[in-house]
Amino acid sequence: MAPRGGFRKHAVSSMELGVLESTDLMLPPPTPFDFVLEFVQMLTKGETHTIPHEATICQLLNHVKFLCELAACDYKFTLYRPSRVAIGAILVALDHKIHTNITGKQRRKLCAQIEEKMGVTITRDNGYDSDIRMCETNLAM
Question: Strand, coil or helix: what is 53?
């Protein structure tokens, strides 16, 4: 137990896992879009947003969702982790010409946030993860 009667993160996770195991619940694996939603929360968290305009975020989210749906229909994407497909879809959407409200600085900041959270390299200057590169290339076609 944590101080003042609270619980530590590990203790809560262990209890949740115990409940899931005892009830034999089968949870579906995360999809690329689950990761996209996590990334969107990163965009809008805090006082300083990476992408400030809500309309731009919605437009970007719709584009990324469409790309994730395309990936779900294509067998070759089953080779890659859902998080890699999600990052590839985000990169393709950010490079698309319809998102002109997103500046280069905002794109770099978003990529840096994703790199930090996911522990992968996605900036082209540093040579990025080969799975992400393949997902991005296949989605851009």
Answer: coil
Tell me the pLDDT tens digit for each residue of 1-60.
Answer: 556 767 888 888 898 888 888 888 777 888 999 988 887 776 666 545 555 567 777 888
Q: How far apart are CA 97 and CA 53, in angstroms?
A: 17
Structural Rg of the chain based on CA atoms: 18
- From 92, 97, 108, select the one nearest 51 (Cα to Cα): 108
Q: Is 8 in contact with 1 (CB distance < 8 Å)?
A: yes
What pTM value is reported for the model?
A: 0.74
DSSP assigned state of 128: -
What sign has the CA pseudo-torsion 95, 99, 103, 105? negative
Task: State the angle between helix axes of 82-95 and 54-72 in degrees (0 to 180), rounded to the nearest 10.
Answer: 130
